[in-house]
Amino acid sequence: QLVESGGGLVQTGGSLTLSCTGSGDILNAYTINWGRRAPGKGREIVAEISWTHTSRYSDSAKGRFTISRASDKDVVYLQMNDLKPDDTGVYSCFALDRFNAPTAWGLGTQVTVSA
């Protein structure tokens, strides 16, 4: 399973860096994604990175979030800048195989952005 950390309370315009740590699941994954679940809503994928380090972002995250992974460590980061109240939610990471099926995931870390 994966373990997320780094969440917290931040003011609008602030920054946070989230970490997703695994026990081999990340190094073996085809893709890792970060998603958030806002209260009363479904999980929205905000960023993903492939085993080739190719990254993609949602429109809401583009230009503000950066996903990265180390080639030799079982960890993926999500650097979030210029945070907005709409970014509030529980952020979780998923490891996916080449068929886009989840192989591991975490319980999430809470991010709260105050106005």
Question: How would you describe the overall organization of this protein?
Answer:
The protein has 115 residues and is mostly beta strands. The protein has strands at residues 3-5, 8-11, 16-21, 31-37, 43-50, 55-57, 65-69, 75-80, 89-96, 102-105, 109-114. The chain starts with a strand and ends with a strand. A hairpin with a 5-residue loop joins β4 and β5 (43-50). It is 0% helix and 52% strand. Strands 2, 4, 5, 6, 9, 10 and 11 form a 7-stranded mixed sheet that branches. A 4-stranded antiparallel sheet has the order 1-3-8-7, with no helix packed on it.
Number of beta-strand segments:
11
Counting DSSP H or I runs of 4 or more residues, the number of helices is 0
Cα-to-Cα separation, first versus last residue: 34 Å
Strand content: over 45%
User: What characteristic shape results from the CA principal axes?
Assistant: globular
Helix and strand element order = EEEEEEEEEEE
Low-pLDDT runs: none
Mean pLDDT: 95
Question: Radius of gyration over alpha carbons?
Answer: 13 Å
For the biggest sheet, the summary is:
7 strands, mixed
Helix content: under 10%
> Structural class per helix/strand content?
mainly beta
Summary, kept brief:
This protein is mainly β and 115 residues long. The protein has strands at residues 3-5, 8-11, 16-21, 31-37, 43-50, 55-57, 65-69, 75-80, 89-96, 102-105, 109-114.
